[in-house]
Write a structure and sequence with these properties.
The complex is a heterodimer of chains A (about 450) and B (about 80). Chain A is of the alpha+beta class and about 450 residues long. Helix content of chain A is about 30%, strand content about 20%. Among the domains of chain A are: about 110 residues, OB fold (Dihydrolipoamide Acetyltransferase, E2P); about 200 residues, Chloramphenicol Acetyltransferase (2-Layer Sandwich). Chain A contains ten helices and 20 strands. In chain A, a hairpin with a 2-residue loop joins strand 10 and strand 11. Chain A is globular, with a radius of gyration of 24 Å. Chain B is mostly helical and about 80 residues long. Classes of the chains: A alpha+beta (about 450), B mainly alpha (about 80). Chains A and B meet through helix 6 and helix 8 of A and helix 3 of B.
């Protein structure tokens, strides 16, 4: 079970898009995974042949659990956070088909490098490294990852009422099971779907576990319903944003940018184009934000393991509000390297898929800086909350006409307030100021944003 | 195109762009984008669908005509 976002602890297999014997390539979508925030298309990170689907449709398992075995030309490998059992180890050494959640082993062994010091720290804290998602380079587990994993566990068991996963609540409601009488086997004693099903009188109402590849879509379990989705998404956002404000010392800078030349250039350009090829001002803002991040790399990357690691490319996260509440922040890959037209079509595509629940896992995990554009909602400016482990969030307000002094005269011009919330551990106000200046400069020469 | 036809086309386009938006509950002279919470991409899609359905060229200069349901009906029916 891959971590499809910094805030994901577990996921449910909604659908397998492959079956044993299928040949797959790295990056192919092989399953649909339901998370707290959305149903997401999960991609394979290796090329090979599907050997065995281990986790059945409808099952909810923690991040790190082996979902399927993929045979590489050389040796079988487990899918799920970067796999690789030692060469020669037979595939079934991985996770056995799960029925008893308490026995669900996490990924077989961590191939990602773990330093002896971190291993020791994990041991001290009683953290199983197999269940820890590495946020370091190449998925390496850092000290911070281990401590986070330990911290996550502690409050859960602290004698409070046991919690239930949203899915478990729904299943309990469907089956008429009182959660108070159910023993939870999840982290911190939380109640999972399997616990609820065990507690039903029939006891055996487990969901179909056969690969759904050849079955009609109707046989697959539904993604979370609207109200439940809203609630689970709220919880996921709450966790991540609370973590951000707890860990990240934010600083903020803002600047009002004259949009006269950008908008008139855009208007001229759109005049000749069919509706489908027209650009919206947001596309210009995004392109400028991405290029500025390339010019000022100190705001583009991750804070992990007590240090800032700049990213090689600019993967621009886009805060997309969903109808009915909540938001997702999928990334436009290499946004600084895309033409304006490509960026525009990627943005449209991303918004449509985010709202339809068809995002790919890689889009939700690798943004290096995020942009929020609340201009359409009519606000003048927005000072955002950074998505950890990113170190900056760019905000755009509404483009409005304002009296502006130009060359000693007052004129009415379209302006936009740009803001930057940045992580003071990774950079100082000086860097943030340079970023907004670069952004403003870029917007004065729109023809160079093409 | 009659005003009724224009209204139908608009209702259909809104239903496609924002399936859960309540056009019926919106006053004819209320701002469409604000009232239905359409962002700039939604609005562009709306214009795209209206162009497809009516065969009419709608330029950016025409956008103000699409501000409200009443003005949009008038604009589409008038052409």
């Amino acid at each position: 079970m891959p971590a499809l976002g910094a805030d994901m602890d577990e996921g449910t297999v909604l659908e397998w898009l492959v079956k044993p014997g299928d040949k797959i390539h790295k990056g192919d979508v092989i399953a649909v995974i339901d998370t707290a925030k959305a149903a997401i298309d999960a991609e394979s990170f290796i090329t090979g042949t599907i050997e065995q689907l281990i986790i059945g449709v409808g099952q909810t398992v923690p991040v790190g659990t082996v979902l399927a075995m993929i045979a590489e030309p050389a040796a079988p490998k487990a899918v799920s956070p970067p796999p690789a059992p030692p060469a020669g180890e037979p595939p079934r050494q991985a996770a056995p088909p799960e029925r008893e959640p308490e026995h669900v082993p996490a990924a077989p062994r961590r191939p990602a490098p773990v330093s002896p010091l971190i291993r020791k720290r994990a041991h001290e804290l009683g953290v199983d490294l197999a269940g820890v998602r590495g946020s370091g380079r190449g998925g390496a587990i850092t000290r911070a990852d281990v401590e986070r994993a330990a911290a996550r566990r502690e409050p859960a068991g602290a004698g409070t009422r046991s919690t239930a996963t949203p899915r478990a609540r729904r299943v309990a409601a469907e089956l008429g099971v009182d959660l108070a009488g159910v023993t939870g086997t999840g982290p911190g004693g939380s109640i999972r779907e399997a616990d609820v099903r065990r507690a039903t009188p029939a006891g055996e109402a487990a969901p179909a576990r056969e690969p759904a590849a050849a079955e009609p879509a109707a046989a697959a379990p539904a993604a979370r319903s609207g109200a439940e989705r809203t609630r689970s998404m709220r919880q996921a956002i709450a966790r991540l944003m609370a973590r951000s404000k707890r860990e990240i010392p934010h600083y903020y800078v803002s600047s009002t940018v004259d949009m006269t030349s950008a908008l008139s250039w855009l208007h001229e350009r759109n005049r000749e184009l069919a509706v489908s090829e027209r650009l919206v001002p947001a596309a210009l803002l995004l392109k400028a934000a991405a290029l500025a991040a390339r010019r000022v790399p100190g705001v583009n990357g991750y804070w992990t393991d007590d240090q800032f690691r700049p990213a090689d490319a600019v993967h621009l996260g886009l805060a997309i509000s969903l109808r009915g509440g909540g938001l997702l922040t999928p990334a436009i890959h290499d946004a600084a390297g895309l033409s304006l037209a490509e960026l525009m079509s990627r943005m449209r595509d991303l918004v449509i898929r985010a709202r339809a629940g068809r995002l790919r896992g890689s889009e939700l995990t690798d943004a290096t800086i995020t942009v929020t554009n609340l201009g359409d909602q009519g606000v003048e400016s927005v000072f955002g909350v950074i998505y950890p482990p990113q170190v900056a969030l760019v905000g755009f307000g509404k483009i409005t006409e304002r009296p502006v002094a130009v060359g000693g005269l007052i004129g009415v011009r379209p302006v936009v307030v740009t803001t930057l919330a940045a992580d003071h551990r990774a950079s100082d106000g000086y860097t943030g100021a340079r970023y907004l200046t670069a952004l403003s400069d870029l917007l004065q020469k729109p023809e160079e944003l093409l | 195109m009659t005003p009724d036809q224009a209204r139908n086309v608009i209702e259909e386009a809104v239903a496609r762009v924002a399936p859960d938006a309540d056009l019926a509950g919106l006053a004819p002279d209320a701002d469409l984008r604000d009232g239905l919470e359409l962002d700039s991409l939604d609005f562009l899609r709306l214009v795209e669908i209206l162009t497809e359905r009516t065969g009419r060229q709608i330029t950016e200069d025409d956008y103000p005509h699409l501000a409200t349901l009443a003005s949009a009906v008038k604009f589409l029916a008038g052409g």
